[in-house]
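Note to self: keep these together.
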Amino acid sequence: VQLQASGGGLMQAGGSLTLSCAASGRTTISYAMGWFRRPPGKERELVAAITSGGTSDIVDSVEGRFTISRDNAKNTIYLQMSLLKPEDTAIYYCAIYSGHSYNRRVAYWGQGTLVTVSS
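Structure:
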């Protein structure tokens, strides 16, 4: 399984960006997927996750600003980010979980895409 994340870049605070993550080698329809990020000098953390059925969860720090969605026909998930803040600067990783829900372990990781938000 390969996960190809794209869409990162340099943005000014307050701007918007959409990340995409396309999976190949396996259909993702039966698996939960998620977005994680690793800010500079910090540990990787969960940002948002979505079950195979489309139920999603967003961490408090990005609630109301980020939205996760999935297109099963394209084997792709998205992270729509708006009202970006400098503290959103991080390498963003997509992941596939080992089951329908995100209370399972992560089975595969994408390579990461860098998002830099300037003040």
